[in-house]
Amino acid sequence: MQNSIRILMAAASIALLASCASTGENTDPAAQDVTQSEATAQPGQEAYSYPYGQAPGNYDSYDTASGAYGSYPSGSQPEYGQSGQPGSGQPGQYGQAPASLGGGSMVSADRIVYFDFDSADIQPESQTIIESNANYLRGNPRIITQLEGHTDERGSREYNIALGERRANAVRQVMSAMGVSPRQIRVVSYGEERPAASGSSEQSYALNRRVEIVY
Amino acid sequence: MKKFEKISCLLVLLFGVVGFVHAQISLDITKKAGNGGTPIVIAPFSGGAPEDIAGIIAADLQRTGKFALQPPNAQSDYSVVGQASPGGSRGYIVQFQLNDARGGSLLNLSFDIPANQLRPVAHRISDLIYEKLTGEKGLAGTRIAFIAGGGGVWYLVVTDADGQNPQVILRSSQPIMSPAWSPDGSSLAYVSFEGRRPQIIVQDVYSGARRVVSAAPGINGAPTWAPNGRRLAFTLSKDGNPEIYALDLATQAPVRLTSNGAIDTEPVWLPDGGLVFTSDRGGSPQLYRIGPGGGAAQRLTFEGDYNARPAVSPDGRYLAMMHRRGGRFYIAVLDLQTRQFRVLTSGGTDESPSFAPNGKMIIYSDGQRLAAVSVDGSIRQDLALRGRARDPAWAPYGR
After folding, report:
1. Is residue B399 a part of any domain in this protein?
2. Closest residue of A to B280, CA-based?
3. Which of residues B134, B158, B192 is at a domain's end?
4. Do residues B14 and B149 share a domain?
5. Same domain, B23 and B87
6. The domain spanning residue B120 has which CATH number?
7. In chain A, N or C: fewer CB atoms in 10 Å?
8. pLDDT tens-place string over residues B89-137
9. Are B157 and B143 in contact (CB under 8 A)?
Protein backbone atom coordinates (compact mmCIF):
# COMPACT_ATOMS: atom_id res chain seq x y z
CA MET A 1 0.00 0.00 0.00
CA GLN A 2 2.70 2.38 1.06
CA ASN A 3 4.65 1.46 -2.02
CA SER A 4 1.80 1.95 -4.44
CA ILE A 5 1.16 5.40 -3.01
CA ARG A 6 4.80 6.19 -3.46
CA ILE A 7 4.76 5.08 -7.07
CA LEU A 8 1.63 7.10 -7.69
CA MET A 9 3.21 10.17 -6.17
CA ALA A 10 6.33 9.71 -8.25
CA ALA A 11 4.27 9.38 -11.39
CA ALA A 12 2.29 12.46 -10.41
CA SER A 13 5.42 14.49 -9.88
CA ILE A 14 6.83 13.50 -13.25
CA ALA A 15 3.55 14.40 -14.91
CA LEU A 16 3.55 17.71 -13.07
CA LEU A 17 7.05 18.56 -14.13
CA ALA A 18 6.04 17.86 -17.71
CA SER A 19 2.89 19.92 -17.48
CA CYS A 20 4.60 22.82 -15.82
CA ALA A 21 7.14 23.03 -18.61
CA SER A 22 4.32 24.01 -20.91
CA THR A 23 2.38 27.21 -20.77
CA GLY A 24 -0.92 25.37 -20.67
CA GLU A 25 -3.64 25.57 -18.12
CA ASN A 26 -3.60 24.24 -14.62
CA THR A 27 -6.77 24.08 -12.61
CA ASP A 28 -5.08 24.37 -9.24
CA PRO A 29 -1.53 25.17 -10.14
CA ALA A 30 -0.17 26.41 -6.85
CA ALA A 31 -0.89 23.19 -5.07
CA GLN A 32 1.01 21.23 -7.68
CA ASP A 33 4.12 23.30 -8.21
CA VAL A 34 5.78 22.83 -4.88
CA THR A 35 7.06 19.99 -2.81
CA GLN A 36 8.80 20.13 0.49
CA SER A 37 10.19 17.51 2.76
CA GLU A 38 8.86 16.79 6.19
CA ALA A 39 11.10 18.35 8.74
CA THR A 40 10.39 17.21 12.22
CA ALA A 41 13.71 17.85 13.87
CA GLN A 42 13.72 20.51 16.53
CA PRO A 43 16.81 22.32 17.68
CA GLY A 44 18.08 22.70 21.17
CA GLN A 45 17.27 19.31 22.56
CA GLU A 46 20.87 18.58 23.41
CA ALA A 47 23.12 20.43 25.76
CA TYR A 48 24.96 21.36 22.62
CA SER A 49 22.39 22.75 20.25
CA TYR A 50 22.73 22.76 16.55
CA PRO A 51 20.22 24.12 14.08
CA TYR A 52 19.31 20.98 12.21
CA GLY A 53 19.31 18.96 15.34
CA GLN A 54 19.11 15.26 15.53
CA ALA A 55 17.53 14.10 12.34
CA PRO A 56 19.38 15.24 9.24
CA GLY A 57 17.89 12.31 7.36
CA ASN A 58 14.51 13.97 7.49
CA TYR A 59 15.56 16.40 4.81
CA ASP A 60 16.20 15.86 1.17
CA SER A 61 19.78 15.31 0.35
CA TYR A 62 21.74 17.31 -2.15
CA ASP A 63 24.83 15.72 -3.53
CA THR A 64 27.41 18.46 -3.73
CA ALA A 65 29.86 16.21 -5.52
CA SER A 66 27.62 15.35 -8.44
CA GLY A 67 25.44 18.43 -8.34
CA ALA A 68 22.39 16.20 -8.34
CA TYR A 69 19.68 16.64 -5.78
CA GLY A 70 18.54 13.50 -4.11
CA SER A 71 15.04 12.20 -4.14
CA TYR A 72 12.81 12.12 -1.13
CA PRO A 73 14.17 10.21 1.79
CA SER A 74 12.76 6.76 2.20
CA GLY A 75 9.83 6.59 4.53
CA SER A 76 8.50 10.08 3.88
CA GLN A 77 6.20 11.22 1.11
CA PRO A 78 6.43 14.32 -0.96
CA GLU A 79 3.63 16.60 0.01
CA TYR A 80 1.55 18.44 -2.48
CA GLY A 81 -1.08 20.97 -1.83
CA GLN A 82 0.03 22.19 1.55
CA SER A 83 1.23 25.46 0.17
CA GLY A 84 -1.06 28.25 1.24
CA GLN A 85 -3.86 28.84 -1.33
CA PRO A 86 -4.23 30.87 -3.67
CA GLY A 87 -7.54 29.54 -4.77
CA SER A 88 -8.95 32.95 -5.46
CA GLY A 89 -7.93 34.99 -8.44
CA GLN A 90 -7.74 32.09 -10.85
CA PRO A 91 -6.46 32.99 -14.27
CA GLY A 92 -9.92 32.56 -15.68
CA GLN A 93 -10.87 30.46 -18.67
CA TYR A 94 -8.14 30.24 -21.21
CA GLY A 95 -9.63 30.11 -24.67
CA GLN A 96 -8.36 28.86 -27.99
CA ALA A 97 -5.49 30.85 -29.31
CA PRO A 98 -5.57 32.91 -32.48
CA ALA A 99 -2.66 31.00 -33.97
CA SER A 100 -1.64 27.42 -33.54
CA LEU A 101 0.62 26.54 -30.65
CA GLY A 102 1.77 23.36 -32.30
CA GLY A 103 0.96 21.52 -29.12
CA GLY A 104 4.32 22.35 -27.61
CA SER A 105 5.35 24.64 -24.81
CA MET A 106 6.82 27.28 -27.04
CA VAL A 107 4.88 30.44 -27.70
CA SER A 108 4.71 31.07 -31.41
CA ALA A 109 6.51 34.05 -32.88
CA ASP A 110 3.32 35.95 -33.59
CA ARG A 111 2.72 36.22 -29.87
CA ILE A 112 6.11 37.54 -28.77
CA VAL A 113 7.02 41.20 -28.47
CA TYR A 114 10.76 41.91 -28.26
CA PHE A 115 12.52 44.81 -26.55
CA ASP A 116 15.81 46.66 -26.64
CA PHE A 117 18.32 46.41 -23.78
CA ASP A 118 17.07 48.08 -20.59
CA SER A 119 14.03 49.38 -22.47
CA ALA A 120 10.26 48.91 -22.25
CA ASP A 121 9.53 50.88 -25.44
CA ILE A 122 7.35 49.10 -27.99
CA GLN A 123 9.18 48.79 -31.33
CA PRO A 124 7.27 49.79 -34.48
CA GLU A 125 7.60 46.24 -35.85
CA SER A 126 5.75 44.89 -32.80
CA GLN A 127 2.60 46.87 -33.56
CA THR A 128 1.27 44.24 -35.98
CA ILE A 129 1.68 41.42 -33.45
CA ILE A 130 -0.02 43.38 -30.70
CA GLU A 131 -2.78 44.49 -33.06
CA SER A 132 -3.66 40.99 -34.28
CA ASN A 133 -3.86 39.74 -30.70
CA ALA A 134 -5.89 42.79 -29.69
CA ASN A 135 -8.30 42.12 -32.54
CA TYR A 136 -8.68 38.54 -31.40
CA LEU A 137 -9.38 39.61 -27.82
CA ARG A 138 -11.89 42.24 -28.93
CA GLY A 139 -13.74 39.63 -30.94
CA ASN A 140 -13.69 37.13 -28.07
CA PRO A 141 -14.56 39.10 -24.96
CA ARG A 142 -14.60 35.99 -22.78
CA ILE A 143 -10.99 35.12 -23.59
CA ILE A 144 -8.34 36.22 -21.13
CA THR A 145 -4.68 36.68 -22.02
CA GLN A 146 -1.70 36.67 -19.72
CA LEU A 147 1.10 39.03 -20.69
CA GLU A 148 4.36 37.55 -19.38
CA GLY A 149 7.24 40.00 -19.11
CA HIS A 150 10.84 38.77 -19.35
CA THR A 151 14.36 40.22 -19.34
CA ASP A 152 17.82 38.98 -20.19
CA GLU A 153 20.03 37.61 -17.44
CA ARG A 154 22.08 40.74 -16.85
CA GLY A 155 21.44 42.76 -13.74
CA SER A 156 19.67 42.27 -10.46
CA ARG A 157 17.02 39.54 -10.37
CA GLU A 158 14.45 41.60 -8.47
CA TYR A 159 15.08 44.72 -10.55
CA ASN A 160 14.56 42.56 -13.63
CA ILE A 161 11.21 41.41 -12.24
CA ALA A 162 10.22 45.08 -12.15
CA LEU A 163 11.61 45.67 -15.65
CA GLY A 164 9.71 42.66 -17.02
CA GLU A 165 6.50 44.03 -15.55
CA ARG A 166 7.17 47.40 -17.11
CA ARG A 167 7.43 45.69 -20.51
CA ALA A 168 4.24 43.69 -20.01
CA ASN A 169 2.44 46.86 -18.93
CA ALA A 170 3.64 48.60 -22.08
CA VAL A 171 1.99 45.88 -24.19
CA ARG A 172 -1.13 46.10 -22.04
CA GLN A 173 -1.38 49.83 -22.62
CA VAL A 174 -1.19 49.40 -26.38
CA MET A 175 -3.85 46.67 -26.25
CA SER A 176 -6.08 48.87 -24.09
CA ALA A 177 -5.68 51.72 -26.54
CA MET A 178 -6.81 49.28 -29.24
CA GLY A 179 -10.02 48.68 -27.29
CA VAL A 180 -9.29 45.48 -25.37
CA SER A 181 -11.13 45.33 -22.04
CA PRO A 182 -8.82 45.54 -19.01
CA ARG A 183 -10.62 42.51 -17.61
CA GLN A 184 -9.21 40.40 -20.44
CA ILE A 185 -5.59 41.19 -19.65
CA ARG A 186 -3.46 39.87 -16.81
CA VAL A 187 0.17 40.71 -16.31
CA VAL A 188 2.92 38.68 -14.69
CA SER A 189 6.67 39.25 -14.76
CA TYR A 190 9.21 36.46 -14.56
CA GLY A 191 12.18 38.79 -14.91
CA GLU A 192 15.23 36.79 -15.95
CA GLU A 193 13.97 33.54 -14.40
CA ARG A 194 12.52 31.95 -17.55
CA PRO A 195 14.83 32.64 -20.48
CA ALA A 196 13.63 31.58 -23.94
CA ALA A 197 17.21 31.05 -25.10
CA SER A 198 20.09 29.81 -22.99
CA GLY A 199 23.61 31.14 -23.17
CA SER A 200 25.17 34.50 -22.55
CA SER A 201 25.41 35.83 -26.10
CA GLU A 202 23.88 39.03 -27.42
CA GLN A 203 21.65 36.85 -29.60
CA SER A 204 20.28 34.98 -26.56
CA TYR A 205 19.83 38.22 -24.68
CA ALA A 206 17.79 39.68 -27.55
CA LEU A 207 15.52 36.60 -27.62
CA ASN A 208 15.02 36.79 -23.85
CA ARG A 209 13.97 40.46 -23.66
CA ARG A 210 10.34 39.85 -24.47
CA VAL A 211 6.68 39.81 -23.56
CA GLU A 212 4.83 36.58 -24.34
CA ILE A 213 1.12 36.88 -25.07
CA VAL A 214 -0.23 33.69 -23.52
CA TYR A 215 -3.79 32.31 -23.87
CA MET B 1 57.85 49.31 -42.03
CA LYS B 2 56.34 52.68 -41.47
CA LYS B 3 52.95 51.11 -41.56
CA PHE B 4 53.98 48.48 -39.03
CA GLU B 5 55.26 51.15 -36.70
CA LYS B 6 52.02 53.01 -37.01
CA ILE B 7 49.99 49.90 -36.19
CA SER B 8 52.15 48.95 -33.25
CA CYS B 9 51.91 52.51 -32.02
CA LEU B 10 48.14 52.27 -32.25
CA LEU B 11 48.23 48.94 -30.45
CA VAL B 12 50.33 50.35 -27.66
CA LEU B 13 47.90 53.22 -27.43
CA LEU B 14 44.95 50.86 -27.35
CA PHE B 15 46.43 48.52 -24.80
CA GLY B 16 47.64 51.47 -22.83
CA VAL B 17 44.12 52.77 -22.54
CA VAL B 18 42.72 49.33 -21.77
CA GLY B 19 45.48 48.77 -19.25
CA PHE B 20 44.71 52.06 -17.59
CA VAL B 21 41.01 51.32 -17.28
CA HIS B 22 41.83 47.87 -16.00
CA ALA B 23 44.32 49.21 -13.50
CA GLN B 24 41.74 51.59 -12.12
CA ILE B 25 39.50 48.69 -11.31
CA SER B 26 42.17 46.20 -10.35
CA LEU B 27 43.42 48.46 -7.57
CA ASP B 28 40.65 46.89 -5.57
CA ILE B 29 40.73 43.40 -6.98
CA THR B 30 41.19 40.76 -4.35
CA LYS B 31 43.73 38.03 -3.85
CA LYS B 32 42.97 34.41 -3.16
CA ALA B 33 43.36 33.30 0.41
CA GLY B 34 47.04 32.37 0.57
CA ASN B 35 49.60 31.13 3.05
CA GLY B 36 50.23 34.47 4.69
CA GLY B 37 48.33 33.75 7.91
CA THR B 38 49.19 32.64 11.42
CA PRO B 39 51.04 29.28 11.37
CA ILE B 40 49.07 26.53 13.08
CA VAL B 41 49.29 22.74 13.27
CA ILE B 42 46.11 20.65 13.48
CA ALA B 43 47.17 17.14 14.53
CA PRO B 44 44.92 14.26 13.47
CA PHE B 45 42.40 13.43 16.21
CA SER B 46 42.82 10.04 17.80
CA GLY B 47 39.95 7.83 18.92
CA GLY B 48 38.47 6.54 15.68
CA ALA B 49 35.36 8.70 15.23
CA PRO B 50 33.61 8.37 11.86
CA GLU B 51 34.31 12.03 10.98
CA ASP B 52 37.70 13.56 10.26
CA ILE B 53 37.47 16.20 12.98
CA ALA B 54 40.97 17.55 12.39
CA GLY B 55 40.35 17.72 8.65
CA ILE B 56 37.15 19.73 9.14
CA ILE B 57 38.88 22.14 11.55
CA ALA B 58 41.83 22.53 9.17
CA ALA B 59 39.53 23.27 6.21
CA ASP B 60 37.51 25.76 8.26
CA LEU B 61 40.60 27.65 9.43
CA GLN B 62 42.18 27.55 5.96
CA ARG B 63 39.03 29.05 4.47
CA THR B 64 39.19 32.08 6.74
CA GLY B 65 42.39 33.13 4.98
CA LYS B 66 43.96 34.02 8.35
CA PHE B 67 45.89 30.83 9.06
CA ALA B 68 48.76 28.98 7.42
CA LEU B 69 48.36 25.27 8.10
CA GLN B 70 51.62 23.48 8.89
CA PRO B 71 52.40 19.77 8.60
CA PRO B 72 52.19 17.79 11.86
CA ASN B 73 55.38 17.97 13.96
CA ALA B 74 56.36 21.27 12.34
CA GLN B 75 57.37 24.16 14.56
CA SER B 76 54.39 26.47 14.75
CA ASP B 77 52.93 29.39 16.68
CA TYR B 78 49.92 27.31 17.65
CA SER B 79 48.90 23.68 17.67
CA VAL B 80 45.64 21.77 18.14
CA VAL B 81 45.54 18.23 19.49
CA GLY B 82 42.48 16.21 20.38
CA GLN B 83 40.56 13.02 20.29
CA ALA B 84 37.05 11.84 19.45
CA SER B 85 36.19 8.47 20.92
CA PRO B 86 33.08 6.45 21.65
CA GLY B 87 31.81 7.07 25.15
CA GLY B 88 29.91 9.52 27.29
CA SER B 89 26.16 9.51 27.77
CA ARG B 90 25.31 10.32 24.13
CA GLY B 91 27.78 8.32 22.09
CA TYR B 92 30.98 10.31 21.65
CA ILE B 93 33.37 12.37 23.70
CA VAL B 94 35.27 14.99 21.70
CA GLN B 95 38.13 16.71 23.49
CA PHE B 96 40.66 19.22 22.19
CA GLN B 97 43.43 21.54 23.31
CA LEU B 98 44.76 24.69 21.66
CA ASN B 99 48.37 25.27 22.69
CA ASP B 100 50.83 28.06 21.99
CA ALA B 101 54.46 27.58 20.95
CA ARG B 102 55.65 27.38 24.56
CA GLY B 103 53.20 24.59 25.32
CA GLY B 104 50.77 26.79 27.23
CA SER B 105 47.14 25.75 26.91
CA LEU B 106 44.81 28.45 25.54
CA LEU B 107 41.71 26.27 25.25
CA ASN B 108 40.92 22.86 26.69
CA LEU B 109 37.33 21.69 26.19
CA SER B 110 35.36 18.51 25.78
CA PHE B 111 31.92 17.72 24.31
CA ASP B 112 29.54 14.86 25.07
CA ILE B 113 27.56 14.40 21.85
CA PRO B 114 25.68 11.94 19.62
CA ALA B 115 27.36 10.75 16.43
CA ASN B 116 25.42 13.09 14.16
CA GLN B 117 26.87 16.08 16.03
CA LEU B 118 30.50 15.27 15.24
CA ARG B 119 30.61 17.56 12.25
CA PRO B 120 28.84 20.49 13.96
CA VAL B 121 31.19 20.11 16.93
CA ALA B 122 34.19 20.26 14.59
CA HIS B 123 32.83 23.60 13.25
CA ARG B 124 32.26 24.76 16.82
CA ILE B 125 35.87 23.96 17.70
CA SER B 126 37.03 25.87 14.60
CA ASP B 127 35.05 28.91 15.72
CA LEU B 128 36.41 28.69 19.29
CA ILE B 129 39.98 28.59 17.96
CA TYR B 130 39.29 31.37 15.46
CA GLU B 131 37.76 33.64 18.08
CA LYS B 132 40.54 32.95 20.59
CA LEU B 133 43.28 33.82 18.11
CA THR B 134 41.68 36.66 16.10
CA GLY B 135 39.23 38.24 18.54
CA GLU B 136 36.47 37.97 15.92
CA LYS B 137 33.50 35.66 15.92
CA GLY B 138 33.91 32.76 13.51
CA LEU B 139 31.65 31.61 10.69
CA ALA B 140 32.31 27.86 10.51
CA GLY B 141 29.13 27.06 12.43
CA THR B 142 26.88 29.29 10.32
CA ARG B 143 24.60 28.39 7.44
CA ILE B 144 23.87 29.71 3.97
CA ALA B 145 20.61 29.65 2.03
CA PHE B 146 20.61 29.91 -1.75
CA ILE B 147 18.61 29.09 -4.87
CA ALA B 148 19.85 26.17 -6.93
CA GLY B 149 18.71 24.80 -10.24
CA GLY B 150 16.67 26.89 -12.66
CA GLY B 151 15.42 26.06 -16.11
CA GLY B 152 12.63 23.76 -14.97
CA VAL B 153 13.25 22.91 -11.32
CA TRP B 154 14.17 25.37 -8.60
CA TYR B 155 15.49 24.47 -5.14
CA LEU B 156 15.74 26.51 -1.98
CA VAL B 157 18.75 24.96 -0.24
CA VAL B 158 20.38 25.52 3.15
CA THR B 159 23.94 24.32 3.69
CA ASP B 160 26.61 24.74 6.32
CA ALA B 161 29.05 27.57 5.63
CA ASP B 162 31.49 25.07 4.10
CA GLY B 163 28.88 23.95 1.56
CA GLN B 164 28.34 20.60 3.29
CA ASN B 165 25.19 19.15 4.87
CA PRO B 166 22.80 20.51 2.23
CA GLN B 167 19.08 20.51 2.98
CA VAL B 168 16.44 21.15 0.36
CA ILE B 169 13.94 23.43 2.05
CA LEU B 170 11.68 23.71 -1.01
CA ARG B 171 11.60 22.29 -4.50
CA SER B 172 9.37 23.83 -7.15
CA SER B 173 8.66 23.61 -10.85
CA GLN B 174 8.25 27.40 -10.78
CA PRO B 175 10.89 30.01 -9.91
CA ILE B 176 11.98 30.63 -6.31
CA MET B 177 13.81 33.87 -5.55
CA SER B 178 15.30 36.15 -2.92
CA PRO B 179 15.57 34.10 0.29
CA ALA B 180 15.98 36.24 3.42
CA TRP B 181 16.70 34.98 6.95
CA SER B 182 14.74 36.09 9.97
CA PRO B 183 17.06 37.67 12.55
CA ASP B 184 16.78 34.60 14.82
CA GLY B 185 17.74 32.25 11.98
CA SER B 186 14.57 30.17 12.31
CA SER B 187 12.68 31.26 9.21
CA LEU B 188 13.23 32.17 5.59
CA ALA B 189 11.11 34.65 3.66
CA TYR B 190 11.27 34.16 -0.10
CA VAL B 191 9.43 34.69 -3.36
CA SER B 192 7.76 31.68 -4.96
CA PHE B 193 6.01 31.62 -8.33
CA GLU B 194 3.98 28.53 -7.46
CA GLY B 195 0.60 28.94 -9.14
CA ARG B 196 2.35 31.02 -11.81
CA ARG B 197 2.25 34.21 -9.86
CA PRO B 198 4.68 35.62 -7.36
CA GLN B 199 3.92 35.29 -3.67
CA ILE B 200 5.96 36.08 -0.57
CA ILE B 201 6.18 33.12 1.74
CA VAL B 202 7.61 32.73 5.23
CA GLN B 203 8.77 29.22 6.07
CA ASP B 204 10.05 27.80 9.33
CA VAL B 205 13.21 25.93 8.33
CA TYR B 206 12.90 23.44 11.19
CA SER B 207 9.22 22.46 11.03
CA GLY B 208 8.71 23.20 7.32
CA ALA B 209 5.54 25.15 8.19
CA ARG B 210 4.94 27.88 5.65
CA ARG B 211 2.49 30.70 5.20
CA VAL B 212 1.77 33.18 2.45
CA VAL B 213 2.34 36.70 3.75
CA SER B 214 1.64 38.49 0.48
CA ALA B 215 -0.13 37.49 -2.72
CA ALA B 216 -1.26 40.87 -4.01
CA PRO B 217 -1.97 41.43 -7.72
CA GLY B 218 1.28 42.12 -9.59
CA ILE B 219 4.78 41.90 -8.14
CA ASN B 220 5.31 40.44 -4.68
CA GLY B 221 9.07 40.63 -4.39
CA ALA B 222 12.31 41.18 -2.48
CA PRO B 223 11.29 40.38 1.12
CA THR B 224 13.58 41.51 3.93
CA TRP B 225 13.25 41.33 7.72
CA ALA B 226 13.34 44.22 10.12
CA PRO B 227 16.12 43.86 12.73
CA ASN B 228 13.52 43.07 15.42
CA GLY B 229 12.06 40.25 13.29
CA ARG B 230 8.50 41.54 13.64
CA ARG B 231 8.18 43.28 10.29
CA LEU B 232 8.93 42.50 6.66
CA ALA B 233 9.62 45.02 3.93
CA PHE B 234 9.01 44.02 0.32
CA THR B 235 7.97 45.21 -3.12
CA LEU B 236 4.38 45.31 -4.38
CA SER B 237 3.12 46.72 -7.68
CA LYS B 238 -0.59 46.45 -6.86
CA ASP B 239 -0.97 50.23 -7.03
CA GLY B 240 0.43 50.43 -10.56
CA ASN B 241 4.20 50.28 -10.28
CA PRO B 242 6.74 48.74 -7.88
CA GLU B 243 6.77 50.42 -4.47
CA ILE B 244 8.25 49.53 -1.07
CA TYR B 245 5.89 48.34 1.65
CA ALA B 246 6.41 47.35 5.29
CA LEU B 247 4.24 44.66 6.81
CA ASP B 248 3.70 44.10 10.52
CA LEU B 249 3.61 40.32 10.75
CA ALA B 250 1.21 40.47 13.69
CA THR B 251 -1.38 42.74 12.08
CA GLN B 252 -0.81 41.74 8.43
CA ALA B 253 -1.39 45.33 7.32
CA PRO B 254 1.14 46.52 4.70
CA VAL B 255 2.09 50.19 4.86
CA ARG B 256 3.39 51.87 1.73
CA LEU B 257 6.72 53.68 2.19
CA THR B 258 7.52 55.04 -1.29
CA SER B 259 5.47 56.95 -3.84
CA ASN B 260 7.10 57.36 -7.20
CA GLY B 261 6.41 56.58 -10.83
CA ALA B 262 9.71 54.74 -11.20
CA ILE B 263 10.78 51.27 -10.07
CA ASP B 264 11.39 51.04 -6.31
CA THR B 265 12.47 47.60 -5.12
CA GLU B 266 15.00 45.53 -3.11
CA PRO B 267 14.53 47.16 0.30
CA VAL B 268 16.88 46.37 3.18
CA TRP B 269 16.55 47.61 6.72
CA LEU B 270 19.17 49.74 8.48
CA PRO B 271 19.67 49.29 12.25
CA ASP B 272 17.96 52.64 12.87
CA GLY B 273 14.74 51.49 11.18
CA GLY B 274 15.39 53.35 7.91
CA LEU B 275 15.57 51.51 4.61
CA VAL B 276 17.90 51.40 1.62
CA PHE B 277 16.42 50.31 -1.72
CA THR B 278 17.02 50.27 -5.47
CA SER B 279 15.23 52.85 -7.60
CA ASP B 280 15.57 54.04 -11.19
CA ARG B 281 13.85 57.35 -10.44
CA GLY B 282 17.03 59.12 -11.55
CA GLY B 283 17.14 57.26 -14.88
CA SER B 284 19.39 54.33 -13.93
CA PRO B 285 19.13 51.95 -10.97
CA GLN B 286 20.79 53.48 -7.90
CA LEU B 287 20.54 53.06 -4.13
CA TYR B 288 18.41 55.43 -2.08
CA ARG B 289 17.68 55.77 1.61
CA ILE B 290 14.45 56.65 3.38
CA GLY B 291 13.61 57.06 7.06
CA PRO B 292 11.64 54.56 9.15
CA GLY B 293 8.30 56.00 7.99
CA GLY B 294 9.27 56.67 4.38
CA GLY B 295 9.46 60.31 3.28
CA ALA B 296 12.01 61.99 1.04
CA ALA B 297 14.60 59.65 -0.46
CA GLN B 298 18.29 60.43 -0.35
CA ARG B 299 20.47 59.07 -3.16
CA LEU B 300 23.49 57.14 -1.84
CA THR B 301 25.37 55.86 -4.92
CA PHE B 302 26.97 57.83 -7.74
CA GLU B 303 29.70 55.48 -9.04
CA GLY B 304 29.23 53.57 -12.29
CA ASP B 305 25.91 53.42 -14.12
CA TYR B 306 24.01 50.77 -12.14
CA ASN B 307 23.99 50.06 -8.41
CA ALA B 308 21.37 47.64 -7.12
CA ARG B 309 20.53 44.82 -4.73
CA PRO B 310 21.83 46.42 -1.53
CA ALA B 311 22.87 44.43 1.56
CA VAL B 312 23.54 46.07 4.93
CA SER B 313 26.31 44.93 7.27
CA PRO B 314 25.07 43.84 10.72
CA ASP B 315 26.47 47.02 12.32
CA GLY B 316 24.87 49.20 9.63
CA ARG B 317 28.16 50.73 8.54
CA TYR B 318 28.59 49.14 5.11
CA LEU B 319 26.37 48.72 2.09
CA ALA B 320 27.28 45.96 -0.35
CA MET B 321 25.72 46.07 -3.81
CA MET B 322 25.84 44.99 -7.43
CA HIS B 323 27.79 47.59 -9.31
CA ARG B 324 28.05 47.98 -13.08
CA ARG B 325 30.71 49.83 -15.00
CA GLY B 326 31.82 49.22 -18.55
CA GLY B 327 29.06 46.66 -18.99
CA ARG B 328 30.41 44.35 -16.26
CA PHE B 329 28.86 43.65 -12.88
CA TYR B 330 30.97 43.73 -9.73
CA ILE B 331 30.33 43.45 -6.01
CA ALA B 332 31.15 46.78 -4.41
CA VAL B 333 30.89 48.15 -0.91
CA LEU B 334 30.11 51.67 0.30
CA ASP B 335 31.30 52.78 3.74
CA LEU B 336 28.38 54.88 4.99
CA GLN B 337 30.67 56.62 7.51
CA THR B 338 33.55 57.67 5.25
CA ARG B 339 31.63 57.48 1.93
CA GLN B 340 34.52 55.40 0.57
CA PHE B 341 33.40 53.22 -2.35
CA ARG B 342 35.34 50.04 -3.07
CA VAL B 343 35.01 47.41 -5.81
CA LEU B 344 35.70 43.99 -4.31
CA THR B 345 35.52 41.48 -7.15
CA SER B 346 37.09 41.06 -10.56
CA GLY B 347 33.69 41.39 -12.18
CA GLY B 348 31.56 39.79 -14.85
CA THR B 349 28.09 38.79 -13.76
CA ASP B 350 28.55 39.11 -9.99
CA GLU B 351 25.27 39.55 -8.13
CA SER B 352 23.29 39.23 -4.90
CA PRO B 353 25.72 40.13 -2.09
CA SER B 354 24.90 39.11 1.50
CA PHE B 355 26.88 39.87 4.67
CA ALA B 356 28.16 37.19 7.02
CA PRO B 357 26.83 37.65 10.57
CA ASN B 358 30.25 38.80 11.82
CA GLY B 359 30.21 41.55 9.19
CA LYS B 360 33.64 40.60 7.82
CA MET B 361 32.71 38.59 4.71
CA ILE B 362 30.27 39.05 1.84
CA ILE B 363 28.89 36.06 -0.03
CA TYR B 364 27.66 36.53 -3.60
CA SER B 365 26.95 34.64 -6.80
CA ASP B 366 28.90 35.08 -10.03
CA GLY B 367 25.75 33.99 -11.84
CA GLN B 368 26.67 30.30 -11.61
CA ARG B 369 28.57 29.70 -8.39
CA LEU B 370 28.88 31.14 -4.92
CA ALA B 371 31.96 32.94 -3.70
CA ALA B 372 32.80 35.10 -0.71
CA VAL B 373 35.04 38.11 -0.34
CA SER B 374 36.10 40.03 2.75
CA VAL B 375 34.77 43.55 3.21
CA ASP B 376 38.33 44.90 2.98
CA GLY B 377 38.92 42.91 -0.21
CA SER B 378 41.89 40.96 1.17
CA ILE B 379 40.38 37.47 1.36
CA ARG B 380 38.54 35.49 -1.30
CA GLN B 381 36.82 32.10 -1.04
CA ASP B 382 35.02 29.92 -3.54
CA LEU B 383 32.27 27.65 -2.28
CA ALA B 384 32.59 24.03 -3.31
CA LEU B 385 29.11 23.52 -4.72
CA ARG B 386 28.38 21.92 -8.05
CA GLY B 387 25.45 23.05 -10.12
CA ARG B 388 24.08 26.53 -10.49
CA ALA B 389 23.77 28.47 -7.23
CA ARG B 390 22.41 31.99 -6.94
CA ASP B 391 20.82 34.40 -4.48
CA PRO B 392 22.87 33.43 -1.42
CA ALA B 393 21.79 34.62 2.02
CA TRP B 394 24.17 34.14 4.94
CA ALA B 395 22.25 33.14 8.04
CA PRO B 396 22.54 35.13 11.26
CA TYR B 397 24.09 33.55 14.35
CA GLY B 398 20.56 32.92 15.52
CA ARG B 399 19.29 31.61 18.75
Report:
1. no
2. A159
3. B134
4. yes
5. no
6. 3.40.50.10070
7. N
8. 999 999 999 999 998 999 999 999 999 999 999 999 999 999 999 999 9
9. no
Q: A65-74, A127-136, A139-148, B87-96: which has the minimum mean pLDDT? A: A65-74
Instruction: Note whether B124 and B171 are same-domain residues.
Output: no
The DSSP secondary-structure symbol of B284 reads S
Tell me: do B204 and B121 sit in the same domain.
Answer: no
User: Distance between CA B120 and CA B60 in Å, rounded?
Assistant: 12
Indicate if B369 and B271 belong to the same structural domain.
yes
Residues in chain A with CB shorter than 8 Å from the CB of B278 are 156, 158-159
pLDDT over threshold 50, residue A130: yes
Give A71's contacts (C-beta < 8 A, 6+ positions apart).
Answer: A60
The alpha-carbon gap from A3 to the nearest alpha carbon of chain B, in Å, equals 22
Residue B372 pLDDT more than 60? Answer: yes
Residue B180 located in a structural domain = yes
Secondary structure of chain A: what % helix, strand, coil (to 5)? 35, 15, 50
Task: Tell me the shortest Cα–Cα distance from B9 to chain A, in angstroms.
Answer: 31
Please list the helix, strand and coil fractions of chain B in percent, rounded to the nearest 5, in that order. 15, 45, 40
Nearest CA in chain A to B352: A156
Q: What is the pLDDT of residues A161-194, one digit of tens each?
A: 999 999 999 999 999 999 999 999 999 999 999 9
Residues of A in contact with B199 (CB under 8 A): 84, 86
pTM for the structure as a whole: 0.80
